[in-house]
Amino acid sequence: MEDIKIMLMTIEHIEEVMNIEKLCFPNPWSEKALIQEIEYNQLARYRIITHGDEVIAFGGMWLIMDEAHITNIAVHPDYRGQGIGDLLLRALIEVAEREGIFQLTLEVRPSNYPAIQLYYKYGFEVVGRRKGYYEDDGEDALVMWKKGV
Ligand SMILES: CC(C)(COP(=O)(O)OP(=O)(O)OC[C@H]1O[C@@H](n2cnc3c(N)ncnc32)[C@H](O)[C@@H]1OP(=O)(O)O)[C@@H](O)C(=O)NCCC(=O)NCCS
């Protein structure tokens, strides 16, 4: 795909990011929570991917001590299966590594096969399970870690 860019997520992207969030998750973050992340959370690092003028994906993490906690990775449904999620995850890993952080963690639904495959591809491993983690339906979460480069 041409005209793809990775950029810092800012307040002006909120509306499009919220749209992707709603299309991707049963329990989307509120606009207020996202604004909080961008404007006030010093630990947060968020990136968007654009196609032309359109925001087609976003993702972010919190850098806590020597660990990066990925909070969100989402690709607009119309743009999946074209390497965008790959690009996004790689970008987040690079942001963390540039800040000297080589351990990354996240939670994912066991039913989310595409996401789990993406994380395996980048060296994440399942290390645990949180029972009934997701509030909307009580599904467990797999806890995945990527340790070292
Ligand atoms: C998970 C998600 C981010 C993947 O984004 P994507 O742009 O479709 O993924 P890509 O095309 O970049 O594929 C990258 C890798 O992901 C995995 N993958 C993506 N789609 C897949 C599918 N349908 N089945 C199996 N593996 C898949 C593969 O490992 C793939 O690598 P490969 O092409 O070398 O096999 C996307 O499906 C999404 O936004 N889902 C909804 C939100 C979500 O669940 N986020 C994760 C929360 S933990």
TrEMBL record:
Q: Where in the cell is it found?
A: Cytoplasm
What is the E.C. number? 2.3.1.266
Any idea where the N-acetyltransferase domain is?
Answer: 4-149
Q: Which residues form the signal peptide?
A: none
What InterPro entries does this protein's entry cite? AcTrfase_RimI/Ard1, Acyl_CoA_acyltransferase, GNAT_dom, YpeA/RimI_acetyltransf
Quick one: where is this thing mainly located? cytoplasm
Under which main EC class is this enzyme filed?
Answer: transferase
A cellular component annotation (GO) from this entry: ribosome
Q: Source organism's superkingdom?
A: Bacteria
Q: Which UniProt keywords apply?
A: Acyltransferase, Cytoplasm, Ribonucleoprotein, Ribosomal protein, Transferase
Chemical reaction(s) catalysed: N-terminal L-alanyl-[ribosomal protein bS18] + acetyl-CoA = N-terminal N(alpha)-acetyl-L-alanyl-[ribosomal protein bS18] + CoA + H(+)
Q: Looking at the keywords, is Ubl conjugation present?
A: no
Gene3D superfamilies per the record? Answer: 3.40.630.30
GO MF entries: protein-N-terminal-alanine acetyltransferase activity
Family designation: Belongs to the acetyltransferase family. RimI subfamily.
Q: Please describe what this protein does.
A: Acetylates the N-terminal alanine of ribosomal protein bS18.
Q: What is this protein called?
A: [Ribosomal protein bS18]-alanine N-acetyltransferase
Q: Which organism is it from?
A: Irregularibacter muris
What phylogenetic lineage does the species belong to? Bacteria, Bacillati, Bacillota, Clostridia, Eubacteriales
